[in-house]
Amino acid sequence: MNIVACVKQVPETTEVRIDPKTNALIREKGIINPFDENAVEAALQLKEAHGGKVSVVCMGPPQAEEMLRGCLAMGADEAYLICDPAVRGSDTLATSYTLALAVRKLGDVDLILCGKQAIDGDTGQVGPGLAERLGYPQVTFAISLEMVENKLRARRVLDDFYEVLEVKLPAVVTVVKQINEPRHPSMKNVLKAKRAEIITWTAADLEADLTQTGFDGSPTQVIQVWPPEKRAGGQVLEGEPDEIAGQLAEIIRGMQIAVG
Amino acid sequence: MEFTFTEDQAAVIAAVKEFCDEDLAPKAQETDEAGCWPAANVGKLGELDLMGIPVPEEYGGLGMDFLTWTAVGEELSRACTTTGAVYGAHMLCVYPILHFGTEEQKRKHLLPLAKGQHIGAFGLTEPNAGSDAAAVATKAVKDGDHYLLNGSKIFITNGGEAETYVIITSSDPSKGVRGLAAFIVEKGTPGFEFGKNERKMAYSSLPNRELIFTDCRVPKENLLGREGGGFLVAMRTLGVGRIGMAVGAVGLARAALEAAVPYSRQRHQFGKPISSFQAIQFMLSDMATELDAARLLTWRAAWLKDQNQPFEKEAAMAKLYASEAAMRITTKAVQIFGGYGYTKDFPVERYMREAKLFEIVEGTSEIQRLVIANHVIRELGG
Fold this sequence. Notes:
The complex is a heterodimer.
Chain A lengths: L1 E6 L1 E3 L18 E3 L1 H17 L2 E7 L4 H11 L3 E5 L9 H15 L4 E5 L10 H9 L3 E11 L2 E7 L4 E7 L2 E5 L11 H9 L3 E3 L39 H14 L6
Parallel strand pairs in A: 1-4, 1-6, 4-5, 5-11, 6-10, 7-10
Antiparallel strand pairs in A: 2-3, 7-8, 8-9
Helix pairs in contact in A: 2-5, 3-4
Chain B lengths: L6 H18 L3 H7 L4 H9 L18 H14 L1 H20 L2 H12 L5 E4 L15 E5 L2 E12 L6 E7 L9 E7 L5 E6 L10 E12 L3 E2 L5 H37 L1 E2 L2 E2 L4 H29 L5 H26 L10 H11 L6 H16 L2
Parallel strand pairs in B: 1-4
Antiparallel strand pairs in B: 2-3, 3-7, 4-5, 5-8, 6-7, 9-10
Helix pairs in contact in B: 1-4, 4-5, 4-7, 4-8, 5-6, 5-7, 7-8, 7-9, 7-10, 8-9, 9-10, 9-11
């Protein structure tokens, strides 16, 4: 079973910075998108059960290499980084186009796994977009996966109910966090991954139509992004409960709120 | 002088830290209070290739050095002192087999230990022997292709849970320390039983059991080193064990400092965080300085070991200083937490109880001072 897991590097949520010109996220130090880590784990478990190979594909800056080594350390067999200024600024339409080219280039693929969404953009569109581009069936929000004969049976978690679907392969599946607990890599794999080759592809390697990639290929333009205003710290009243109650009543009176 | 880790060392340490932060630390309190063997944590150590870090790959290890083992141990002890202690005690079985074992012994016993499939333990201490190794009363008498072991060991860390034991016996009591012999004894050998599990001031989930040998027949292939060579096995193992204890103390002290600093910034008195008061700042600076000194002594001892240079004095210095520093640092952490520090709602009271162990095991502080004094007087006495 040849499985591709698509992974994205996202900023550590504590260190988000935005480029004031392009309104795009500045990706300095990143982590693997947590849902994508679940996708890698799901891929590894399917491989362990049914044999085959797990390839990890990422579109991102050179710094994403570190994250891909993390996937190799978990046990992925190959890692590909699509890295080219021509794909920078891609929205979900352009991203799914580029990833679809990469999947086609990999050739014989049975299953593509993605996280249900990325924690930075939060669109959840790349997995479904990829399925459309490839013309494969898609299952979103999978909480469990198993092979039943030659079909993949997936349990979807929705707001009020579960849904069990069976799809023919090849297919695209997006997974939720609850599907598994991503493993910690063994130290032998950590060391092996350090020395492994990360295969880098450019837009030219993928024979991409440059009108469909990057800023040019992205109909969505982000107009403005700003961090939420920090809430001013409240006022803390100290003292005995009786005193505090009195102080609180005074403050409320002072606010001139209409009561009644 | 080189104060940086290699890329490989740094990668391993970073991966272990992530595992510790996500897996071990959040349930450290639970692990301690459970009062039973932390099987899940110990299993993970094996899966992550942490049970044979300085063992060559051909014997199932990671093929790295003792310095890496030291840095990893600090991360483990910082996150969960109990798990760190299992890791440290395991090495007391791994190291003597690695260093003194025959090829056959390494294949048979070291391989599963290094892979974490077997857990190891080391037995020297007896009711009347510990610091005084010459008083070992567990006897080994040759009987054809076997030795018959009789006697008992106490306080043995990992005892009962471990599959493989390195046991120091006396095969010729008339020769004192020159009559000692070390054996590899497997759990399940007829005549080898476990006695009482000690109830302790801390580490309720860490087994420290009595080992009882009653006409226990151990095949002669399990003699580690030669008859009469047991003292050397014990001393070399204790040397590594002292580094291990220093590592545990450093990890624990770091946990205490890392708890105390944020608390001192959060806790307000007189309208200010207590970290703004010099009384607290002076405590924090002493804690940080002593922690650093303890760590550097520990790394130096491990580095000497990796360079195949004598490290006995340095290991004793590291163990002495790190354990006493851990006691001071954890006590200060409780002081900074004040009344809350004395409650079970915060981990620092546990850290303080756990720290006391390090001043006692693997040679008390007093024994370390004797070892260091012997070296100093020999080196500088003229």
